[in-house]
Design goal:
mainly alpha; globular
């Protein structure tokens, strides 16, 4: 029997996380939920990843939104 890790982000890369959020909400929906310029002005996965990797407070917000989405999906 294998145990599921308690950390909901275990094994999820930032890129996968961001791709799932964009697929679910779209860039506009993401920008409405998290007020970050890289989601509003000419958004791309590459530029968003660069920003999130060097901005801990923004990454925390994105990770929290991802966890909420996963919990709602069951």
């Amino acid at each position: 029997m294998t145990q599921t890790p308690k950390d909901p982000l275990h094994g999820v890369t930032l890129e996968k996380l961001l791709n799932e959020l964009v697929a679910h909400y779209g860039w506009d929906g993401l920008a409405k939920r998290i007020d970050i310029r890289c989601f509003k002005s000419d958004p791309s996965i590459k530029s968003s990843l660069a920003f999130l990797r060097k901005t801990p407070w923004a990454r925390e917000k994105v990770e929290a939104l991802f966890i909420q989405l996963r919990q709602r999906q069951g």
